[in-house]
Amino acid sequence: MADSLKAVVAGGTGSLGTETCRQLAAAGYDTIALSRHLPDSPEPEVEHRVADLRTGTGLEEALTGADLVVDAVNEVRSPVEVLVEGTSGLIEQCRQAGVGHFIGVSIVGCEKVGFGYYRAKTAQEQVVREAPIGWSLIKATQFHELLAWAFAGLARYRLSPRGPVPLQPIAVDSMVRRLVEIAEAGPLNRTEPVAGPEVSDLSGLARAWQARAGRRCLPVRIPAPGKTGRALRSGALTDPGAATPGPTFAQWLQSPSPPVSDPPASG
Length: 267
Ligand SMILES: NC(=O)c1ccc[n+]([C@@H]2O[C@H](COP(=O)([O-])OP(=O)(O)OC[C@H]3O[C@@H](n4cnc5c(N)ncnc54)[C@H](OP(=O)(O)O)[C@@H]3O)[C@@H](O)[C@H]2O)c1
Hints:
There is one protein chain. By secondary structure, the protein is of the alpha/beta class. It has a domain at 6-141 and 171-195: Rossmann fold. The protein is 38% helix and 18% strand. The chain contains nine helices and eleven strands. It has helices spanning 15-26, 59-63, 79-97, 116-129, 144-155, 172-185, 202-213, 226-233, 249-253, and strands at residues 6-10, 30-35, 46-50, 68-71, 101-107, 135-140, 159-162, 166-167, 191-194, 200-201, 218-221. Strand 5 (101-107), helix 4 and strand 6 form a beta-alpha-beta unit. The protein is globular, with a radius of gyration of 18 Å. The chain binds NADP nicotinamide-adenine-dinucleotide phosphate. NADP nicotinamide-adenine-dinucleotide phosphate is lined by residues 10-11, 13-17, 34-37, 51-54, 72-75, 82, 86, 105, 107, 121, 140, 142-143, 146, 265-267.
């Protein structure tokens, strides 16, 4: 790779953003992480700056001279303002700064599921596809870290979810390896699905987490009514053709420091 390409990762302190910054810096990019709050333990190879997608604060300065911008921002409470309008503003700032490649991140099957957050993700995808600069859109499945966080949250109430919902989770690390390959290759100007190595159902994933965490919980069936329920049960959140090498959820749980309690994910 040529020296001193500059990468800016919006949301660079989140689950996806932290690993993206780490791997881009390791690949030789001068890497800037943007977030509203500076982290307590900054990544040593990464420059952290304050910026807000909702107001546009800090974007112009951070994007000057950037070659690559990755949008790893997440917001579940005001997804339209931040993920749709905020991403639109970020792309416009990228255009003005002459950024060559914008990478957006969305979710496999979000267009088939009627949750408000998923509708905002679908609208955000359209904003990325209409970008007036080179773009790539990665649609990822749920991260192992997100499932572990959700299972740990329910286990606090001694509950464990069950349901015939196929999922195909992926380790953030595996997902980011593919993201960096796309960054190095240049804009795809199309959507690329990136999914975990195997499809498992929610019940099996929750049981695996419980076994590793050694937690006794009451199994509770998650209701999934109507069209959204049918979509979830029929595998809307999976894409077997996009299986990506890396640890399965069960293998990931066996890592030496088992990530079975609260990771920093919030998506
Ligand atoms: N988690 C999953 O399983 C999963 C799966 C597939 C796709 N994705 C997608 O991956 C992306 C990242 O998700 P994630 O789970 O890594 O998110 P996350 O851990 O919740 O991190 C969110 C990041 O966004 C920053 N942020 C939030 N609001 C902001 C704003 N207004 N301006 C600037 N920064 C802001 C946060 O820092 P501050 O709060 O300090 O600003 C943080 O750095 C999202 O697009 C999500 O849909 C996630």
